[in-house]
């Protein structure tokens, strides 16, 4: 029997030395279990999301040297692994050295060369250039190579032939995107299948996205069934980033039998070796997938991402400003679960506008969590700042004239927010020996409902890819499943969300944020997360046709409840579109890194230009028509 080891390893991006040491250790472990083949993920040696580190030739050479160590370790075991491959005699289209995203098969200290290939490795054929991916910026594809060689990708694509235990095996090996070919004019797996394979092997470096695993099971199950052979999907764990956006890699390495049915799946977010006898896979019972609702998956991804990020930056303590509201309460409960109560300092910073209700809820939260807690009123310092601004003259040096600034109520709100973050939290964090968090959610981030250098500040925003309703769901999950008791006070969940920066946001009078979250969460989501992104023209057409709530997914009846007339609906739509495409873009550019969860997260995943506000002709025509009725 042929024993195959699936190496779901933790990949540390940009550290080929550590990854190689980890791989060699897993190879030795697999040998102890008499494995014949061990399979590692895509880009297991260097990591995948490395930005322009790929432009460093010294780094590429280092990865090659590490690859040689893996090849040398292939005595008495075959090793399939992902690494960058370079052709130092050729160039990419950008004039830099030619690089390939490659799959290597090493056995007995030698590389196995695919038939019809000019190199001793498999080259990724399909280059994703959407969402977090940027492969075409750095790598030369198999399709480009085929064109250069005046042949076709169909001819170059071929299985790997490996002789083990006196039998020749044909391995249909491919890399990540090559299995997701529905929207491409090339289907690598179909081509491999047509040339005869005994098994399919997909090495991936696939970031977690809510709902993605379900689609992958459908796609890869179909590939296995059509080929009539087992399929090994091997993914890594860990976190990687594109600067502004931090992605979790959940692993979930999966074995599909020849009928396309899941036979096994390795645990999420855990480095682990799985062992399988090739001839026995079809006899394995069907794998029972875990039944967890969306918020359980979200908690797993967010908590793993935050824990890993803190570990990577060597931060062991955090400071969190808590207001008595839901976002800061969820952040406090999350970080306390990860770091322990002794390493979390919660700070309530009331002004004259903070009610006794929310101050009491902040106190209750801190007591429930058992954290370090401090109350630092800000009104005196805010008043002092306003006084200085209004009484210290500004002199125009050209003619000696002077004037005094006037602080409006809106500016006073911003001063409060900046005093809390730039002065209090930053100072406390430095003294406490940690960092302070940003607690913004995705709805606020979408329309810039935050203050630059104020509540938008922090070293990480763990909740910025969660809509408000998901933050509430996470609060309940933390209480019921994680802590098993009420840590986020129920009154915090029930109270109207409010920034409490003025008397117009008095929670005791039921006054809160201008964002109507039950509707705006879904409206804003259509701007950002839809594959065909919605614009005011789409929204207004759906409104006119009476299908808006169905299209965006909010509760039926909300639109009529919130906006009795077309004029009110249009005014609200334009208000938030102006924010989303205007000042909010600049704010997002300056925002802290976020943990990505959704199908489109802010940062590198949602690439933006500061182009200003624009309404299409179709929108203007619809608006005129509706306002005339």
Give a written overview of the molecule.
The chain is an alpha/beta fold. Helix content is 40%, strand content 17%. Strands 1, 2, 3, 4, 5, 6 and 15 form a seven-stranded mixed sheet that branches. β17, α10 (356-369) and β18 (372-375) form a beta-alpha-beta unit. The protein is globular, with a radius of gyration of 28 Å. The N and C termini lie far apart (76 Å).
How are the elements arranged and paired?
Layout: E1 3-8, H1 16-32, E2 37-39, H2 57-72, E3 78-91, E4 97-107, E5 110-111, E6 122-123, H3 135-138, H4 142-148, H5 153-156, E7 160-164, E8 167-175, H6 188-194, E9 199-203, H7 212-227, E10 231-234, E11 237-241, E12 245-250, E13 254-256, E14 262-265, E15 272-277, H8 294-312, E16 318-321, H9 326-339, E17 344-348, H10 356-369, E18 372-375, H11 379-391, E19 394-396, E20 401-403, H12 409-432, E21 435-436, H13 442-447, H14 468-483, H15 490-494, H16 517-528, H17 536-545, H18 548-552, H19 558-562, H20 566-581, H21 583-589, E22 594-596, H22 617-628
Parallel strand pairs: 1-2, 2-3, 8-9, 9-10, 12-22, 16-17, 16-21, 17-18
Antiparallel strand pairs: 1-15, 3-4, 4-5, 4-6, 7-8, 10-13, 11-12, 13-14, 19-20
């Amino acid at each position: 029997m042929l024993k195959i080891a699936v190496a779901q390893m933790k990949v540390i991006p940009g550290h080929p030395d550590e990854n190689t040491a980890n791989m060699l250790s897993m190879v030795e472990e697999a040998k102890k279990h008499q494995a014949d083949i061990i399979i590692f993920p895509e880009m297991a040696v260097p990591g995948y999301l490395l930005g322009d580190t790929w432009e460093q030739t010294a780094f590429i050479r280092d990865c090659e040297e590490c690859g040689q160590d893996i090849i040398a370790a292939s005595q008495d075991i075959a090793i399939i692994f992902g690494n960058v491959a370079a052709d130092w005699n050729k160039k990419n289209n950008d004039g830099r050295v030619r690089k390939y995203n490659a799959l290597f098969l090493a056995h007995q200290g030698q590389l196995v060369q695919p038939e019809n290939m000019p190199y001793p490795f498999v080259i990724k054929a399909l280059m994703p250039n959407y969402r977090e991916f940027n492969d075409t910026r750095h790598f030369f594809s198999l399709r480009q190579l085929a064109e250069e060689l005046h042949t076709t990708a169909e001819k170059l694509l071929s299985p790997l032939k490996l002789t083990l235990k006196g039998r020749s095996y044909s391995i249909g090996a491919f890399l990540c995107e090559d299995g997701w070919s529905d929207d491409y004019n090339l289907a690598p797996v179909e081509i491999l299948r047509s040339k005869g394979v005994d098994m399919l092997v997909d090495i991936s470096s696939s970031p977690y996205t809510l709902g993605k695993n379900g689609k992958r099971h459908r796609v890869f199950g179909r590939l296995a069934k059509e080929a009539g052979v087992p399929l090994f999907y091997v993914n890594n764990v860990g976190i990687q980033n594109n600067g502004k956006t931090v992605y979790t890699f959940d692993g979930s390495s999966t074995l599909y039998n020849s009928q396309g049915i899941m036979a096994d799946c390795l645990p999420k977010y855990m480095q682990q070796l799985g062992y399988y006898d090739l001839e026995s896979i079809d006899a394995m019972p069907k794998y029972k997938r875990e039944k967890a609702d969306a918020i359980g998956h979200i908690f797993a991804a967010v908590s793993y991402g935050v824990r890993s990020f803190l570990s990577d930056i060597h931060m062991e303590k955090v400071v969190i400003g808590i207001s008595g509201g839901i976002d800061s309460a969820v952040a406090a409960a999350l970080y306390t679960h990860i770091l322990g109560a002794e390493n979390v300092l919660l700070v309530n910073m009331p002004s004259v506008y903070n009610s006794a209700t929310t101050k009491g809820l902040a106190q209750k939260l801190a007591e429930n969590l058992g954290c370090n807690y401090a109350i630092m009123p800000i009104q005196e310092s805010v008043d002092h700042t306003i006084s200085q601004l209004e009484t210290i003259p500004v002199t125009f040096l050209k003619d000696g004239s002077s004037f005094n600034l006037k602080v409006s109520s809106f500016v006073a709100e911003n001063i409060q927010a900046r005093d809390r973050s730039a002065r209090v939290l930053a100072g406390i964090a430095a003294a406490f020996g940690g960092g302070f968090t940003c607690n913004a959610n995705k709805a606020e981030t979408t329309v810039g409902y935050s203050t630059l250098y104020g509540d938008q500040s922090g070293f990480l925003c763990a909740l910025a890819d969660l809509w408000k309703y998901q933050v509430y769901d996470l609060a309940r999950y933390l209480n019921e499943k994680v802590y098993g008791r009420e840590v986020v006070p129920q009154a915090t969940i029930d109270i109207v969300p409010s920034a409490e920066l003025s008397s117009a946001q008095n929670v005791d009078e039921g006054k809160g944020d201008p964002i109507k979250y039950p509707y705006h969460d879904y409206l804003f989501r259509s701007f950002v997360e839809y594959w065909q992104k919605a614009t005011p023209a789409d929204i207004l057409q759906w409104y006119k046709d009476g299908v808006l709530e169905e299209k965006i997914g909010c509760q039926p009846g909300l639109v009529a409840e919130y906006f009795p007339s077309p004029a009110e609906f249009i005014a609200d739509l334009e208000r938030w579109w102006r924010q989303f495409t205007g000042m909010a873009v600049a704010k997002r550019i300056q925002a802290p890194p976020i943990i990505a969860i959704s199908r489109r997260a802010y940062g590198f995943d949602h690439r933006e230009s500061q182009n200003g506000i624009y309404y299409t002709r179709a929108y203007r025509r619809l608006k005129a028509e509706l306002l005339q009725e």
